[in-house]
Design brief:
The chain is an all-beta fold. It is built from no helices and nine strands.
Length: about 110
């Protein structure tokens, strides 16, 4: 079974999950040739290991709190915070609380 990805003009709910976050998992929201949108769910004290992607990335905390590890620094982030990472930047996330994050990735640079 393939994952549902939103179509053009389809409204995507990225509101906070509230109490449902305990049972939530990460999911792909939309994917095109040039862009990928994901809701990343990390439960308290869980991590997304360091990795890098070719394209530019944004990470927006929807709810909860986490630490962003990038550029040799650890930066706290909480609901409402947004960060941009240049393509190829190694980064990791560590949840301080149950949290959900909207991650966007530019997959292919226009030439």
């Amino acid at each position: 079974m393939s994952l549902h990805h939103a179509n053009s003009a389809e409204v995507i709910n990225v509101r906070p999950l509230g109490d449902q976050i305990r049972d939530a998992v990460s999911s792909a929201l939309a994917k095109t040739k040039h862009l990928e949108l994901m809701r990343i769910v990390l439960h308290a004290d869980k991590s997304m290991p360091e990795h890098a992607v070719t394209g530019e990335v944004t990470i927006q905390v929807i709810e909860g709190a986490l630490e962003l590890h990038a550029h040799g620094k650890i930066q706290p982030m909480q609901a409402g915070d947004l960060v941009y990472l240049a393509g190829g930047t190694p980064h990791a996330l560590h949840a301080l609380q149950d949290c959900s994050v909207l991650m966007t990735i530019l997959l292919h640079q226009p030439e």
